[in-house]
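Follow-up to my earlier ticket, as requested here are the two runs.
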Amino acid sequence: MGNRFFTWIDFNSKFGKEMASAVSVYERRKESGMADYSLATYDFVFISDAKEKLIALGAFLSNNYEYKINVPVRRDDHWELTGDATEFPVDENNLMYWGLGLYCKGYEFDCKLDGYGAMGDACNQTFPDIETKDDDYYFERAMECYNKGNLGMAIIHFSTAIRINPNDPNSWYSRATVKDQLHTWKTARRDYDKAIELAPDFTDAILNRGVNKDNAGEYSEAIADYTQVIALEPGNEMAYFNRGNSKLNLKNSKGACEDWQKAKELGATYAQERIEQHCSQKSILKKARELFKR
């Protein structure tokens, strides 16, 4: 995408720094005497090269996140947007995912998260209600946030549900899927593992863990997960389709074509494109010529 203020290269290169920044903010909060999971309201700053981009981001955060948004102002060579988030229980992970959620959302609008902070009184702390509210309450709040695109807060509410009931595989699985969307595949993998430990036949979790492994380049391990899903659900078209993709990455064209064909027979019409690209006589002859030229 051309003429961006916050490019994909910048987004990737600064992603780790954003995580480290959250840890630093958390440690300063901890040093001030604030306890884990006490509630806080953070203010934040976004910057961009155009007022209109910040207006669009601010409208989204106001309408979907219910954040308080100020009017963008000019600052030297850029524009700046400030606002206040809704309160949430803070620990190191919650703060990191809240920050990553804003970082990723800002990128969608070509705006860069430039910082955040919160005041805190160690002598006057409040905490979320986890004594009278059950895990279902926080699970539903997490889903509401997820459906509005607030991925950071979705993770925070799933984490509170897990804090109340660590034995529900759905909370672990749901949190894993959101972590994947926030590009933290290693911690997502651990959540998938926990969900499957609690529910060994949880095919959605096994399937998604396979995708997670695929994205990490662990194709043989992904195939093992897809094969497990197929053993549990022989009619799972996505498991066949994904396994075909993994086999292709391992240069097993024959096995890939067999899996895509099975996926198509089960209803995966989208498999036809892969079949035409890699399994037709024409594509096979083309690959043979390319190999011969080498």
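Run two:
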Amino acid sequence: MKAKTVAQSRVSIGNMMQPDQANVNGGVHGGEIMKMMDTCAGIVARRHSRMSTVTARVDELEFLLPIRVGNLVTCHG
């Protein structure tokens, strides 16, 4: 089976942040963003390896700016 190139495994997903993803102050929960990132990474891993994959561990995730309800968040993998 021929291996895929990196370009063939790329994916971009986007979501408009909704009120059910946020706290009472309108800030989106970090877990929602982490879930989106994990989904994007999982699609890339599956496409590239052509096998089932899992996230074994996340060492660190640093949020530099708040994400608010109504913001469009795009994840590229």
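The only thing I checked on run two: The two ends are 23 Å apart (CA to CA). Let me know what else you need.
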